[in-house]
Amino acid sequence: MKLKLIAGLLLLVWGLSKSGWEAGIDKERRLIVHGQDVPLDVNTRDLLGQELSLALLGGFRGMAATSAWMSLTGAWENKEWTRVKAMADLATTIQPKMVLFWEHGAWHLAWNASIDMETYSRQANQSRAEIEARLWIEEGRDMLLRGLQVHPNKAALYLRLADIYWQRLGDYETAADYYLQASQKEGAPAYAERFVGIALEKAGKNQEAYDYFCQLWEQVKTEPKSSQPPWQNVKRIMMELEEKLQVPEGERVF
User: What do you get for the CA distance between the two ends of the chain, in Å?
Assistant: First the structure.
């Protein structure tokens, strides 16, 4: 009975009509969803519907979010991308503090959905398929940007944004910026700081990349890790940049 009740509540929430907003209700929603008085964006407001939706979900947020995520998994397996997005939006709205929902939801959209459009689309018009793929990539990016409004200090979300700009949008300069922001957050993987310079080099910002690598190498050259393979790769890139930039022999690091 309890599972049926929860399922019924979810269906009811999803089917509620949308209407205008009142200041008191808006504040109550902010408190319930975020645990503090912060503004909700328009997408979140539209998704939640009226005050009844929050009243119904108030006591079942964890179970409801899990149920939405399970529905997302089924939709992913069936390549129902619109439903994947809807369930990701629902899960992150009900349980915004779960970083995994933001991170993996964005991955489904920016990679799985968009690559499906690029590779397996039945669109007769290839350019149309490319447009659809780009839209899914942007949906994934936007999900991460919304996630950062809730989790501004989570390195994982900055890393996934950097990956989207690098791998899916080919915007290496912006990717470098997000790798840099990720590297400054607690718990960031060691590779984040190296990827800043690599992304700058791929963006054609050779001087900026070299200057960054010089600073980075100065920090690690006396430490044992500077002899490890990842740092030897940095050394190789720096030597290549010294050649491209025609750095005078006496000013070269290597």
Answer: 71
Give the other-Cβ count within 10 Å of 70's Cβ: 12
DSSP per residue, 17-47: PP----HHHHHHHHHHHHSS--PPPHHHHHH
Identify the residue whose tokens are 């489904």: 108
Residue 29 is which amino acid?
R
Sequential pLDDT tens for the chain (254 residues): 555 545 554 444 444 433 333 344 344 334 433 444 344 444 444 444 444 355 445 556 777 778 888 889 999 999 999 999 999 998 998 889 999 999 999 999 999 999 998 887 555 577 788 889 999 999 999 999 999 999 999 999 999 999 999 999 999 999 999 999 999 999 999 899 999 999 999 999 999 999 999 999 988 877 777 777 888 899 999 999 999 999 999 999 98
Q: Which amino acid is at 89?
A: D
Q: Please count the residues of the chain.
A: 254
**In terms of pTM, does the model score above 0.90?**
no
Integer Cα distance of 226 and 208 in angstroms: 21
The maximal CA–CA distance of the chain, rounded, in angstroms, is 78
Contact status, residue 238 vs residue 254, Cβ threshold 8 Å = yes
Tell me, what amino acid is at 110? A
**CA dist list (Å): 168 to 81, 88, 173:** 17, 20, 13
Pick from 10, 109, 114, 101: nearest CA to 56: 10
At 83 the three-state DSSP class reads: helix
Q: Which amino acid is at 219?
A: Q
How many angstroms separate the CA atoms of 155 and 64, rounded?
A: 27
Report CA 128 to chain centroid distance, whole Å: 25
**How far apart are the C-alpha atoms of 109 and 9, rounded to whole Å?**
26
